[in-house]
Amino acid sequence: MGHPALIDLHHLGRPRSLAAYLLLGSEPTLIDCGPSSCLDALERALADHGIGFDDLRHVLLTHVHLDHAGAAGMLVAANPRLLVHVSSAGADHLADPSRLERSARRLFGPEFDRLWGPLAPIPAENLRVLGAHAAGLDCFATPGHAIHHASFLDPDGNCYSGDVTGVRIPPSPYVAPGTPPPDIDLGAYERSLDEILARRPNRLCLSHFGIYDDVEGHVARMREGLALWSGWVRDGATEEEFIEAARAQLADRPDVLEAIETAAPFPPSYAGLKRYWETRRRPARAAAAAR
Questions:
Q1: Which of 117, 146, 183, 188 gives a 20 to 30 Å CA spacing to 100?
Q2: Alpha-carbon distance 59 to 32, whole Å?
Q3: Which long-range CB contacts under 8 A does 103-107 form with residues at least 24 apart?
Q4: pLDDT-based confidence at 286, cuts 50/70/90?
Q5: What pLDDT is attached to residue 182?
């Protein structure tokens, strides 16, 4: 299988922000597909490899956030033979994306259409719930970033880890965790990183952005970032203080900072961590009040 083909989806016209991965062979396979707003870029990239939408046989989704899965229904509409593989927790959102769309429109407002483009439902016959294997890859649950997150490992040791291994913009080694709401879980994050390391991958293939062979060092920096960011919020940082501190980490690399803020803006990461700590403090407050 060798190295996969990295497809730069040029989200919002920016390079090195959002990737899909193409595995060529008898059944061409995409790992994530990006949003519908990037379909033109995806089509051009596939054409560079001599294939079109109707040549694809499988799409494996790490999770159903719109930057990773938003175009899946449109791809199935263009290619009714396409099979879309997703975790059991994400399948309902693809069969009927209306709830996902309502939630995203509340969050992004009038920017929704420019950012993500249209969503389309996927018929049941085109959906496959992930098991241990799909399209020749090993599949395993990696929650933490999202409850429905999964990762994939191909026979050559390429691990397609979506967002659970964070955001990294080449050539910088800096790893930003990326912790948007609603279901960030720091304990699950740590266990998922353990699951990835236990499989001893040769490379990490990140959605944001690129392929890296310093696997252990990258994961260590991801853990450090999670601990640092979550600690700021746990200890009472405001959103403004959080953003200022996150930006200060890259004060000497404004190009990388700008790319990271496009790929994974800091305000949602703050909101995700704030919600995480608030939900864990409620039982403690309730117990204290009951004494």
A1: 188
A2: 6
A3: 104/66, 107/268
A4: very low
A5: 85
Tokens of 164: 């659970």
H or E element at residue 193:
helix 186-198
Structure tokens at 267: 């305000």
Identify residue 249 by its one-letter amino acid code. Answer: Q
Residue 42 is encoded by which pair of tokens? 């995806």
Q: Are 82 and 76 in contact (CB under 8 A)?
A: yes
The structure tokens listed for 18 are 């959002």
Mean pLDDT value of segment 6-33: 94
Please name the amino acid found at residue 216: E
Question: 127 φ, ψ to 5°?
Answer: -95, 140
Residue whose entry in the numeric block shows the structure tokens 């060529």? 24
Cβ atoms 151, 164 nearer than 8 A: yes
Question: How far apart are the two ends of the chain, measured CA to CA in Å?
Answer: 61
Give the span between the Cα atoms of 51 and 40, in whole angstroms. Answer: 14
Residues 195, 201, 203: CA angle, nearest 5 degrees:
125
Q: What single-letter DSSP state applies at residue 60?
A: E
Contact criterion met (CB below 8 Å) for 183 and 138: no
pLDDT at residue number 108 = 85
**One-letter amino acid of 163:** D
Q: Residue 84 in 3-state DSSP?
A: strand
- What's the maximum distance between 2 C-alpha atoms anywhere in the chain? 69
3-state helix, strand, coil in the chain (%, to 5): 45, 15, 35
Q: What is the mean pLDDT of residues 220-249?
A: 97
Among 108, 113, 42, CA closest to 79:
42
Q: How far apart are CA 222 and CA 228, in angstroms?
A: 10
